[in-house]
Amino acid sequence: MAPPPPSSASVSQPVIDAAGSAPPDNQTQPLAVVADRLPWRHTFISLTVPNFRIFAAGHFIAVIAIWMQRIAQDWLVLQLSGSVTAVGFTVALQFLPSLLLGPWGGMIADRFAKRKILILCQSMAAILAASLATLALTGVIMVWHVYAIALVLGLVTVLDQPARQVFVNELVGPTYLRNAISVNSTTFQLGGLIGPAIAGLLLTAVGAGWAFAANAVACCSTVVMLLVLRKDQLHVNAPTPKSKGMLREGLRYALSKPTIYWPWLMAGFISVFAMSLPVVLAAFADHVFKVGAGGYGVLNALVALGALSGAIASTRRRQLRLRSVVFCAGMYGLMLCLAALAPSMVWFGVVMVLSGFWCLMFLTGSNQLVQVSSNMGIRGRVMSLYIMVLIGGQALGGPMLGWIAEHADPHVALLVSGGVPSLAAMTVAAILARKGSLQLTVDWRDRRHPVRIARRVAA
């Protein structure tokens, strides 16, 4: 049994009124998560929960394999077609179902047992990965095979992602939820650091087929992990009964809370323009730096290295502010713009590390803010809307950035990828500052916080 939380780790919900929305004057106030800085031994305190420890171990293996498949799939399409646009189209097929059907996946997650949904989805993912591996290893694979399997995998993701997001709460309960989200992000990025590197080696040595085979085995291990969880230790909430207008209810709820719809809006800009970064990196690896499959894996691993640092840093964040989430989104966009101007691959790689850091600071902060701001009975639908934007937006951004990289220039594609989210973040920040009567103050006498945001004093 997990030990009781330390007194410094008290979790609080955002202040809401009877209508379920944040008061106007609290729209940019900090969401207090911990009162004092946690000791380092509590950085991953959610892992003291046995069920979550099992889940995290299985998830780590699966994530490495997922990254291997993603890198191998993109590079395989590039080699088969010779087109960066085709790589973007593959991304679009994989994420288009989330864009079109995402809310229904959230409704199913609210109505049925999340663990059973995940077992079903991971079993299907194993079959798809095994099919891809068989086609690649027998040498008969064609681009349309990858397209078809990517589309079916996207349909599986529609059910898998909202159930996975909400299942974390069932594993750890509300006390450790925020920390568990950060641990999941850390696991994902650590897998993202290892997976691309292994994929690069496999692509160079034996081809893409073995990367797909590894993912099939990993999906099977995830199913086993889900089956061995202690059901009596899950924090299971009663399923939401079916009723008319469930999707509209979820949308109204999300739009009524600034701590949900502003992160949702920023996630849209990040998703469409900046989350299809592997597509642009494929163009840089093949056309700009000419470093081949191994170099492509290294570039993705550098992004994951920065993201891993960001995920760990997010576990140390004492307060969760809406404006800090917007700031992280803007910094991510700025880093991508700087990468487009990098004079060499060395400097490009350095900025990729920084890009990964700010991307993960945004993603974890945004995810935490949306989840903590949502009641459990509707959280599946709220998260499905968030995922619909975050994942589904890549169905639009992947082909767009691939086309720009191929027909204009990879540097232009990267400038668009970072420039639009940066401008969006500045616009949202200005709106929040005006609503919250905030202003930027500079005081060089304050050595700890020479530049800070403070409430405007009335004249």
TrEMBL record:
It is a multi-pass membrane protein. It holds the Pfam family MFS_3. Residues 1-27 are annotated as: Disordered. It is found in: Cell membrane. The chain crosses the membrane at residues 51-69, 117-136, 142-159, 180-203, 209-229, 261-285, 291-312, 324-341, 347-364, 385-405, 411-433. Coiled coil: none annotated. PROSITE patterns: MFS. Keywords: Cell membrane, Membrane, Transmembrane, Transmembrane helix, Transport. Its main location: membrane. Residues 46-436 form the Major facilitator superfamily (MFS) profile domain. It comes from the Bacteria. This is MFS transporter.
